[in-house]
Fold this sequence. Notes:
Elements: H1 2-8, H2 12-18, H3 21-33, H4 38-55, H5 83-90
Amino acid sequence: MFRLALALGKTVGELEETLSPTEFLEWQLFNVSWPIGERRLDLNFAQLCAVIAQVNGNRNARPIDFMLATDQPLQENPEEISDEDLAATFGTNVRRIKR
């Protein structure tokens, strides 16, 4: 309900007052085949990342490899990504920019 409210620019209270249970079910079904909001952006960026990885040598890159795992909490101190992991994910032509 919150995702739909955000996508429509309404509050959850407004949706609860104006949205019938049938229409809400239709929105849920629509969201399965055509994701709305942040989920759609995540999918679009995952597709873009997969293409970038493919043109840089990782021919097996798939969009699912770049999807955010939203059911897992974010790490406060993520592990440092090795150069080998970068090359394996994005292709051999990708180099780390040293600061």
